[in-house]
Amino acid sequence: MAYLDIQRRGKTYICGGFLVAENFVLTAAHCNGEEQEQSQQTISVCHRIPHPQYNKESTNNDIMLLQAPPPSHPPTPKRAKLNRWGDTISLPRASETVETGAMCSVAGWGGTSTDCTSTPARLQEVDVLVMQDAACPGNPNGPYCYYNASSMMCVGDPKTGKDSWKGDSGGPLVCGETAQSIVSWGPPNPPGVYMKITTFIPCTEAMLRRLQP
């Protein structure tokens, strides 16, 4: 997991992200703009690469790559040190799907309830249910009016109230041992809306190959 400290218009916002390579973090494009524990590593960002078709209004294509400086670029550190506390997570194949009813998990440092005014000091994780697309109806005047089933996933059972919340944006929805989606947006109560990583696998992998030293 990556804790993102974002400066925007004189204010600080937090987001999540996750390592997909030693020098790349995948997160949400709307996190565009770094607490101490033994496992923490602080790494600067030299390039932010949001999806070129990211739409602020609809939040479509809400995905972004963050690149750490190359070894020759000061200041240090250069890239993440992979160890028992921090490692990369696998991305799905472009053809991979997650079935409705699958139980996955989401983690982050975001609020633990909708009325929470502070964020937790420790990383939180919760199991969440993958819902059918109909649970996020794209009614023009409803909270899911911008829901796009081709690039988004509807996640979080309203019966349990378990979902991500503010500050968790950009974190991974992990199913098995694979990051399948990215926390994106949603109303105060579940389900929430997550970006399907499979939709962006070809362009993400091409970008990683192009930018690797």
Automatic annotation (TrEMBL):
- Domain of life per record: Eukaryota
SMART domains from the entry? Tryp_SPc (SM00020)
* Cross-referenced SUPFAM superfamilies: Trypsin-like serine proteases
CDD domains, per database record: Tryp_SPc
Pfam families, alphabetically? Trypsin
Q: Name one GO molecular function term.
A: serine-type endopeptidase activity
- Where the record annotates domain Peptidase S1, the positions are 1-209
Q: Which UniProt keywords apply?
A: Disulfide bond, Hydrolase, Protease, Serine protease, Signal, Zymogen
Name-wise, this protein is Mast cell protease 3
